[in-house]
Amino acid sequence: MLRRLDSEFSQDPQDGKQQPMPVVRSRLRSQPIYYHRETLAHSLDGRKVDLLTISSLDNILDEREDALPGLFPDHPAMPRPRHFQNKRVVFVTARVHPAETPASFVLEGVLSFLLKDDPRAHKLLKECVFKIIPMLNPDGVARGHYRHDSLGANLNRHYIRPTLAAHPTIFATKAAVLATCHTHSKLALHVDLHAHAAKRGCFIYGNRYDTMPEQAASQVYPKLVGLNSVHFEYDQCNFSELNMHLVEKRDAGLSKEGSARVALHRETAAMCPPVYFYTLECNYNMGRQACSIPHSGSGLMSTAPLSPEVARKSYVPKYTTASWEDVGKGMMVAVLDWLGTNEWSRIPHSPFRTMAGLVQDIRHHVAPSFDLKGFAKDKAPPHVSIVATKPPLTTLKNEDRKLSKSDKHEMKRFGYVGLPPTTTPKKDRTRSTSNSNNGGGSAPPTAALRSLSKPPILRSSPNNNNSNHSI
User: Fold this and answer.
1) Of these residues, 281, 309, 325, 343, which one is catalytic?
2) 134: domain CATH number?
3) 241: annotated active-site residue
4) What is the pLDDT of residues 324-375, one digit of tens each?
């Protein structure tokens, strides 16, 4: 596909070096498109890693991007792309795991939509600059590997401290992503494309935030993808703290903290406006349910009530390449919704009716995992074995305190329902009776005194799926 795009746009080798504007030729498109392809780095086996820059000619500057040290080997013979003023940058990467071919079809759907003669695509390119790396692990693809590169490393576990010598493609990708945070157009979101063999459906892995407003904001984009692609299943998305630290046996003890989604999120956590990082996963075979999406409109919100839903017998179809391409297209339309500039949005024809309604729905579903102050209940430092991090619950009489739903939910997590026991355990009472019969007096034993003088310490059970996990 890249060769076809190269021939279609037929860039001047100097990319307009003698001209104030780049040379962009395409007889098939009503609007001019800025398309720039360059070599970001070489892999360990010497294969090229391409970086594409796609946008419209709106707000283009004469100034060019800087050549980063050790990267862009064809520079200065091939100049860097031009800067854009006041646009948002969307970064898309794929094939860090060589065998995950659905990721390439999703990317083809992304490129096909961006370069399509469609008013939504024109609007999107006017608002954004797209940076795309089609293949992060060309050595693994050429060698027929499943997840690893030529040295047997899972490259998606080395984003924390990659080196140019051992992980040149990841080192270059991280540098390129972070560089967009300091340009005239700021980075808005990054999506890393993958495939999943064990879990059905197309879904997103996101990050866990400390407060409810931040968490709800991070889940807006995945929710919008679900409104724009019939094959995307928002209900299967995972935004948990555990999924940010998970260690799989096949990764030699390396956790997901080294993935692009988590490592780059931590690198940019202090940025304002915030940058969102996601992992898109697509099953090779099929989804979990047959989904439907509202139709797109003219942007005018209807005031008529929604028609009642009619139950229909449906089956879950098998995925084809067109299914994954549709997910890529839905990702791009969702960006336009996310920016609030989609005149053909499906939101007015959805149950949410407005973006505010959609956000409110997300907050409603997110709220139970946060306390009354809006802080995450399950947020814990990584690599800490949690034994009893919860403070002892205050023991009050039932008539003095009415339990809220959140209190009951919290108590249920620790293996019991109701208020903590305030009486002496049965074993201690038996021991106290035997001591008194033997002339030991009526004073309770030391253990019983301790149990009466302070409330019990609650310890989470390692076998309880709802308890805190040792990370």
Assistant:
1) 281
2) 3.40.630.10
3) no
4) 999 999 999 999 999 999 999 999 999 999 999 999 999 999 999 888 777 8
